[in-house]
Design goal:
The chain has 269 residues and is of the alpha+beta class. The chain has a domain of 110 residues. Helix content is 22%, strand content 22%. A hairpin with a 4-residue loop joins strand 11 and strand 12. The radius of gyration is 19 Å and the shape is globular. The N and C termini lie far apart (46 Å). Belongs to the GATS family.
Length: 269
């Protein structure tokens, strides 16, 4: 419904959304959550088959976006590990490899992915949700923060490595569930009784991936971050955007995360 505009950039590809639902057999306890939970089972296999993905972690769950034209490869890659369903008229219908085999070509081996630089601003972030019926009470504040509170980034800072702080605010509304990521200072502007977070009220630090806009054709970017964090059992929320990727990790683990990612950079040279 958005009118064409010279101010709006639109990626060429159409993307489909995958969500991974647990079968309930995972043991309970203090396990890594977020993108690291599906790093080995979903992210790594798709990267190995040269499938580019966008990640969207929310307060409730994680979503993987894949290009529509890559769906046959995605189905063939994941069918051995997962029961796969598609939604038709509100119903979940099983999908088999035969359903998408038309035109399927085994992908060529992917070239070694580029090791992108990572930056970690000092900003502390919160991952929050809001009950839908209380959303009107903070709607004006949301609009102000989303559209009016932040000045445009300086041109000189677009590719700067000096990233002491970062302006980042993410709002998603998916099937009625609201998820918000905001910095701790911005959170103070909202009524504390309306913003819901986990009982521990943890704060998160960010790792931003990419020294310049990443584009959409490269694969393996999410895997480069998620796999070492999964191996170290570190929780991470991951948000892909039009220009950069962002991983949020618990504040008390940021030093270990930076060390792990630096080791990845050095071993890849």
């Amino acid at each position: 419904e958005l009118p064409p505009s010279e101010f709006m950039q639109v990626a060429d590809s159409t993307w489909l959304v995958l969500s991974v639902v647990s079968n309930g057999r995972e043991p309970s306890g203090c396990q890594a959550t977020g993108v690291t939970k599906i790093a080995r089972s979903v992210i790594a296999p798709l990267a190995e088959h040269h499938v580019s993905v966008l990640m969207l972690s929310t307060y409730q769950t994680d979503f993987i976006l894949v290009r529509e034209r890559d769906l046959p490869v995605v189905i063939h890659t994941l069918a051995g590990e997962f029961d796969i369903y598609k939604e038709e008229s509100g119903e979940c219908v099983p999908v088999t490899c035969d359903d998408v085999s038309n035109g399927f070509l085994k992908p060529k081996p992917a070239a070694s992915p580029t090791l992108h630089p990572v930056q970690s601003p000092q900003t502390r972030f919160c991952v929050l949700t809001v009950a839908p019926d209380t959303l009107p009470a903070i709607a004006t504040m949301l609009i102000d923060v989303l559209f009016y509170s932040h000045s445009p980034p300086r041109e000189a800072g677009a590719g700067s490595q000096d990233l002491d702080s970062i302006t980042f605010f993410a709002f998603s509304l998916i099937e009625g569930y609201i998820s918000i990521v905001m910095d701790a200072e911005t959170q103070k502007r909202f009524p504390s009784d309306l913003l819901l977070t986990s009982s521990t009220g943890e704060l998160w630090r960010m790792v931003r991936i990419g020294g310049q806009p990443l584009g959409f054709d490269e694969c393996g970017i999410v895997a480069q971050i998620a796999e070492p964090l999964a191996a170290a059992d570190i929780s991470a929320y991951y948000i892909s955007t039009f220009n950069f990727d962002h991983a949020l990790v618990p504040e008390d683990g940021i030093a270990e995360v930076i060390q792990l990612l630096q080791q990845r950079q050095e071993s890849g040279r």
